[in-house]
Amino acid sequence: MAVEGLERIVRDHPFFKGLDESFLELVCGCAQNVRFEAGAYLFREGGPADQLYLIREGRVALEIAAPGSGAVTFQTVSEGEIVGISWLFPPYRWTYDARAMERVRAIGMDATCLRTKCEADHDLGYDVMKRLVPILFQRLQATRLQVLDIYGKPAA
Amino acid sequence: MVQPASHDPMVPQVMRVAQAQLDAPDVFTLKLEPEADLPRFTPGQFNMLTAFGVGESAISVSGDPASGDGIVHTIRAVGAVSRALTELRVGDSLGLRGPFGVGWPMEELYGKDVILLAGGIGLAPLRPAIYRLLAERERFGAVAILYGTRSPADILFRSEVESWRQRLDVDVHVTVDHADESWHGQVGVVTTLLPRIAFDPGRTVALLCGPEIMMRFGVQALGSVGVPDEGMYLSMERSMKCGIGLCGHCQFSPAFVCKDGPVFRYDQIRYLLALKEL
Ligand SMILES: Cc1cc2nc3c(=O)[nH]c(=O)nc-3n(C[C@H](O)[C@H](O)[C@H](O)COP(=O)(O)OP(=O)(O)OC[C@H]3O[C@@H](n4cnc5c(N)ncnc54)[C@H](O)[C@@H]3O)c2cc1C
């Protein structure tokens, strides 16, 4: 795909909305178009966390395998959202599985490339952090609600 | 407001169960038929139902206000009274006082975008409002139903939710807290559905019903996208006894949940939401 096409997709994705033009060029150097058929895994628990996925189309199930009861989906992620945060911090390993529930089109960002550029240019690094932290916070809040099991049976 | 059919609001009418249906684990929907006149109700109102020999509980009406065919209630068994009510079968009798309370502000929704944010059993008290919205669809702007529950097996009124989803003039999204691989829908908390719908926050009215923690998160999420406090209505399920503002059991100065609610505008009960007990 032409570079301008990729730049346009990255710029239009909500995760990078409003990104400075100079940063856009930097992050696009780490980006490529990827596609997963239904049932394919974007990544598996324990594997090297080497990508950040910007989802363009389709739905991804984030799952944890539970002994005896198969995989439990704890979140789904769709168009306009991102998959993969573990690439940010050592030991750079995925902590759950990500499975395409239908055909998924995404931008895959090479995490080593992105991390290197964030280290080299802290303005870019801080900008990327400000985009990631609210997502982490939302997921923390969502996890709190799930742990509280608010729809479950009250303790008698 | 619609007045209780019974002259003395403290005296229950005897009703007969005409239909009993399991809707989700521990959740039953009962259709009741009165021995005398059918009390009329507005969406969001509730009745006090008596399981004879066990006790009385406030239960919202979950049926269609326009239907003259019985009174419908959806009950989840959590304690002695609610369990006894869910164990009633066709032909059994129970007591009913009501309808009571102030329901959803249906007329205020005319011309507005409407978001219904329901959690768990909270879809039941919203269902009469959904029937009204669908019956008078052209009088409202965009209409979205966002429903979150525990797991796919806990989805209430499933075939009906699916039929609403097939309509082109209503945006219906369902999410569950967790699921196995057989579920192809969304997993995550109900507030994550908000970015999926189109609405004009300044002219939106949101109706929320579900566990209080869910409503608190719902209010925050709606507020963060620009829905004003005066544009949010919540159905409060604080424990009550008489149902008519006499005994003071559910009173928190100056409001009685039973008489002035159960539906309140958010800016009027912000203080109530922070209280642990009432
Ligand atoms: C206006 C109003 C409308 C209501 N509408 C409905 C309805 O449509 N369907 C319905 O099933 N219930 C509804 N409720 C709740 C209902 O009135 C009872 O509180 C509930 O059924 C429990 O009563 P119980 O006597 O069986 O249990 P209790 O003996 O009172 O309680 C048993 C256990 O359940 C917990 N509990 C009590 N109430 C709730 C609750 N609402 N949610 C979660 N846990 C609870 C208690 O803390 C306790 O741990 C409504 C309440 C109000 C105030």
Automatic annotation (TrEMBL), chain A:
Q: Where is the Cyclic nucleotide-binding domain?
A: 15-115
- Alphabetized InterPro entries for the sequence: cNMP-bd_dom, cNMP-bd_dom_sf, RmlC-like_jellyroll
Q: Kindly provide the name given to this protein in its UniProt entry.
A: Cyclic nucleotide-binding domain-containing protein
Species: Bauldia litoralis
Automatic annotation (TrEMBL), chain B:
Q: Which UniProt keywords apply?
A: 2Fe-2S, Iron, Iron-sulfur, Metal-binding
Do the record's keywords include Kinase? Answer: no
Provide a GO biological process annotation.
pyrimidine nucleotide biosynthetic process
Q: CDD domains, per this entry?
A: sulfite_reductase_like
Annotated [2Fe-2S] cluster binding lies at 242, 247, 250, 258
Required cofactor names: [2Fe-2S] cluster
* Name of the protein this chain belongs to: NAD(P)H-flavin reductase
Native source species: Bauldia litoralis
Q: What lineage does the source organism belong to? A: Bacteria, Pseudomonadati, Pseudomonadota, Alphaproteobacteria, Hyphomicrobiales
